[in-house]
Amino acid sequence: ARPSYTLEAAYTPRPGGVRDERCP
C-alpha cells in the first residue's frame, strides 16, 4: 500500500471481496 493509503482503507473489504492490502 502507498503512504497515502491508511490501514483502515487497506483493510476495508472492497465490493469485489478483495482487500486492498498490497495494491497501489
Itemize the secondary structure elements and their pairings.
Elements: H1 7-10
Structural features, described:
By secondary structure, the protein is mainly α. It is 17% helix and 0% strand.
The low-confidence runs, each spanning 5 or more residues with pLDDT under 50, are none
Which structural category do the helix and sheet elements fall into? mainly alpha
Alpha carbon gap, first and last residue: 5 Å
Beta-sheet strand percentage?
under 5%
N-to-C order of helices and strands: H
Number of helices: 1
Over all CA atoms, what is the radius of gyration? Answer: 8 Å
> What's the main sheet like?
none
| Secondary structure: number of strands | 0
- Helix fraction? 10-25%
Task: Output mean pLDDT.
Answer: 59
Principal-axis shape equals globular
What would a concise description of this structure say?
With 24 residues, the chain is mainly α. It has one helix at residues 7-10.
Descriptive key words:
24 residues
